[in-house]
Amino acid sequence: MINTYQTSLAPPPVPPRLHRSDRVLIPTPLPSQGHSKPLIRFLVGVVVLHLVLSVTGFIYLYQTFNMGKLPASAVQAALLASEKQETFHRPLAHVVVQKQSAKEPQESQAGYLQLDTSHSVFKETNYYHENWLTIQQSGFYYVYSKVTFSKGDSKLPLASLIKLRTNENEKEKTVMKAYCNLNSHHGSTEIPHMCSATQGQVITLVKGNQLSVWVQNLSLVDYEEGATVFGIYKL
Fold first, then answer.
1. What is the pTM of this model?
2. How many helices, marked H, and strands, marked E, lie in the chain?
3. Pick from 193, 195, 194, 213: which is nearest to 110 by CA?
4. Do 141 and 234 touch, CB atoms closer than 8 A?
5. CA distance readout (Å), 142 to 12, 45, 70, 222, 234
6. Residues 105, 108, 110, 116: what is their CA dihedral angle, to the nearest 10 degrees?
7. ∠138-210-159 over CA atoms, to 5°?
C-alpha cells in the first residue's frame, strides 16, 4: 500500500481568527523626580540619625566599662545580688548536738556526738543514724566544729576529732583534730572551769561521704545551747 499521509510539503498556514481586537499599549508617563526628593531626604535623615545614635552609644559604653567609670555602688549591688543567689543554693548544715538517749552507750564512754535533728539546719544535706552528716553534692566544703568541755580528763588531753568515711559501710578516718586545756584545780561547782576545742578546715568531699564528731568521753561535753556545734558549708 502507498502511504498517502506522508508528504514533504509544509502545512498550510493557520487562518486568521475573526472578531479579534488588537491591543494598543499606551505608555504611561514616568513619575516626576520632584515628588521623590522629600522621600529621599527623609531616608537620609533616618540613616544619619541612626549612625549618630550608634556612635554615641558606643562611646558611652567604651568610657563606662573600659575606662572604669561604672559607679561603685552599682558594681557592689550587682555583686551582692549574685552572691546572695549563689549562697541560697549552696549546701550547708549547722548541727546542734544533744545528750545520748537511753538506748545509746553510757555517757562515760567514747563515741560520736548525737545530732539534734529537730533544732539543726540541713540544706541539700542529710544525716545518717543521727550521728553522721551525709554529703549530697561533691565539692570543696568548709568544715567546722566547736566542742565545749565542762570537765577534765585526768589521763588524756581533751580532744575532738572529725571523722570521715566514704559511705556507711567503710571504715572512718580522722581528718581534723582539736584540743583544749582545762585545769580542774581552778573553778568550783558553782562556777565551773570550761574550755572549747574549736577547728575549721576546707576539705574536698564527694557525694555519699559522711562526717561526724568523736570525743573520748561523752560525759565531759557541755550540751548547753550554743556550747557544742558542728557544721559544713560548700564553697
1. 0.60
2. 2, 12
3. 213
4. yes
5. 106, 62, 34, 24, 6
6. 60
7. 125
Domain ranges for the chain: 39-86, 91-234
Tens digit of each residue's pLDDT (9 = 90 or more) over 164-218:
999 888 899 999 999 998 765 555 556 667 899 999 999 999 999 999 999 999 9
203, 141 in Cβ contact below 8 A?
Answer: yes
Residue identified by cell 565531759 is 220
Instruction: Tell me the three cell numbers of residue 159.
Output: 580532744
Taking Cα atoms as reference points, which of 154, 156, 101, 119 lies closest to residue 231? 119
CATH class of 91-234: mainly beta
Residues in Cβ contact with 40 at an 8 Å cutoff, skipping those fewer than 6 apart:
none
The per-residue DSSP string of 88-142 comes to: HTS-EEEEEEE---TTSPPTTS-EEPEE-TTS-EEESEEEETTTEEEE-S-EEEE
Q: What is the largest CA-CA distance in the chain?
A: 148
